[in-house]
């Protein structure tokens, strides 16, 4: 069955809750607990025309908040886990109680992935990579265009929902990889430098089933200053 734009919006709302889209108030969204939803560092419409306002509202105010709420609920009966950062939880999944391990994997990963995602985009983004990350990309991939093509191909080929990443591997080298669902590269000992969300909810309202076009247009909003900061931090 095909869905039109209105039906798709209604389905998202029915699936993920009834949080208002009129404005963002973190206290109104997040469940009680140690983890909280970060506000967007720009307005909902700031990334237009590449990512539309409606998508940003649903993506942040419904999808991301659901990950944070579920994460808080998961650790509610484990006070010792509430003192840990989300990074610590994700890096040590095997040590977590079995009854919440999958919930932490899915929702802790979702929170981490989206927190990075909002920060590595900017209305003033785009262009070629700058700083040390720019030089490292050229050294590894030959040119910025070759890097973009390889990254886009990885995102296009990923079956189903997930993320495509630029990571620093265990040898301290850049590589492109993908993960399913909300899995974080941290689970594999990789340090995420930047990632693009290729779940349908990240692009379907504007691009429909044209994931390749979304991947192509996304480069117009990449915040290379933030990506460079994360690269330097990962190397330190």
TrEMBL record:
Give the organism, scientific name. Microcystis flos-aquae FACHB-1344
Q: Which InterPro entries match?
A: Mn/Fe_SOD, Mn/Fe_SOD_BS, Mn/Fe_SOD_C, Mn/Fe_SOD_N, Mn/Fe_SOD_N_sf, SOD_C_sf, TAT_signal
PANTHER family xrefs: 37S RIBOSOMAL PROTEIN S26, MITOCHONDRIAL (PTHR43595), SMALL RIBOSOMAL SUBUNIT PROTEIN MS42 (PTHR43595:SF2)
> What Pfam families does the entry give?
Sod_Fe_C, Sod_Fe_N
Q: Domain Manganese/iron superoxide dismutase N-terminal spans what residues? A: 35-122
Q: What does this protein do?
A: Destroys radicals which are normally produced within the cells and which are toxic to biological systems.
| Protein name (database record) | Superoxide dismutase
Q: Which reactions appear under catalytic activity for this entry?
A: 2 superoxide + 2 H(+) = H2O2 + O2
The UniProt keywords, alphabetically, are:
Metal-binding, Oxidoreductase, Signal
Subunit structure of this chain's protein: Homodimer.
Signal sequence residues: 1-30
Q: State the EC number(s).
A: 1.15.1.1
Q: What class of enzyme is it?
A: oxidoreductase
Domain (Manganese/iron superoxide dismutase C-terminal) spans 130-230
| Superkingdom as given in the UniProt entry | Bacteria
Entry similarity comment: Belongs to the iron/manganese superoxide dismutase family.
